[in-house]
Amino acid sequence: MGDLRGSLDKVLPPPGLPRRLAAQSALLGIGGGTFLTGSVVFFTLYAGLSPIQVGIGFSVAGLVGLVGSLPLGHLADRIGGRRSWVLGALGGAAVFALYPVTGGFWTFLALITAEAATDTLANAGRMVYMGAALAREDRVRTMAFARAYLNVGFTIGSGLGAAALALDSRSGLLILVLANAAGLALNALFVARMPAVHAAAGPTEARPSPWGVLRDHPYTALASLFGVLWLNATLFGEVVPLWAITMTDAPKPLLGVLFAINTIMAVALQVRATRGADSLAGSTRLLRWAALATVAACPVVALSGATHGWATIALLALTIVLLTATELWMSGAQWYLQTEIPPPAQRGAYMGASKSVGGVTKMLGPASLTFLAIHTGGWGWWVIAAIFVAAWAAATPIVAWVERTPRNGVPAALVR
């Protein structure tokens, strides 16, 4: 009985709010995974848009998320995390319910822009709510469980999406969209039933300007570091698959296996990977480990361009393991730093600023990293490794700078 209880403790979040948050994440992942599996197919075949129009729409949506993160994060601070979360989820449900009546490019552009705004508001509200509702010692572990259950939901949703696509009909494509709309509506109801909480304002935090966050130079430096480390996601999702297809002899179906490795690790190891992310010192250590894991991945993937058969497959699999390790360690460190460093009444604005500043590298990363990895013939992987070595070296001094800087008149020790 004791062994069974210990095993359950490893896969089940603690009872109460942590378990409810994990269940909500799984629900959200099912709807999102169902749609994302065939989103491009829906927009091109059902809505009749060209690939270029779809690409422009996604780019504009990304820009809206980038520019809107700070003001919408501030809005979440003002009206409360749970309310923002619910409004964002309901707005997203409405947008997806309208997608089937998309009448052309401009309608699509309006809807996908609205979707980006509602998603940004919901995410800001979620982080503000979790920062206020969870005890400091429980936050990172609960967020890790939520991320793991989100991945479980995405896996289930991807299977449902694939089944809908297998119908090869307009009805199947309609299922993709309406399933996500229903999931978001249920998600809003689920969140609305969570306990109400409010972040307490500090002594000088009556109504601080959200733009003042950008003048917190230590924090913007930290946000820039996050942005550089999250280039790892571009390597995983875009650059390595493109490298595998064009520069190695790996069979194309292998890409599905590589993505499965990432999902399995995220589900099984996310909670364990956050151990130590309960202090500034521990989070700094995880940031440095995250950087070094990607440094190690670069020569491994470069070598796969000169091997054959099973050796290539093994090297690509090892690359994904290392890149996933970066993701897991980086997530734990970022959850702690983004909830503990900001003054409680400004968590939304600080997280929005972090997303906006870090988003610059997300915009520049795909083209730059693809050029370095692919168009140099492979030697550019050493340049990419050097970028992450620089991030490893910068992590300790940047976090130390953040630690000793007061915010809104609150001494740093009190902010933590």
TrEMBL record:
One matching Pfam family: MFS_1
Subcellular location: Cell membrane
Gene3D superfamilies tied to this protein: MFS general substrate transporter like domains (1.20.1250.20)
Transmembrane spans: 21-46, 52-72, 84-102, 149-167, 173-192, 219-243, 255-274, 286-307, 313-337, 357-375, 381-402
Chief location of this protein within or outside the cell: membrane
Topology in membrane: Multi-pass membrane protein
Family matches, as InterPro entries: MFS, MFS_trans_sf, MFS_Transporters
Keywords: Cell membrane, Membrane, Transmembrane, Transmembrane helix, Transport
Transmembrane found in the keyword field: yes
Cited SUPFAM superfamilies: MFS general substrate transporter
Name of this chain's protein: MFS transporter
Organism this protein belongs to: Paractinoplanes bogorensis
Top-level taxonomy: Bacteria, Bacillati, Actinomycetota, Actinomycetes, Micromonosporales
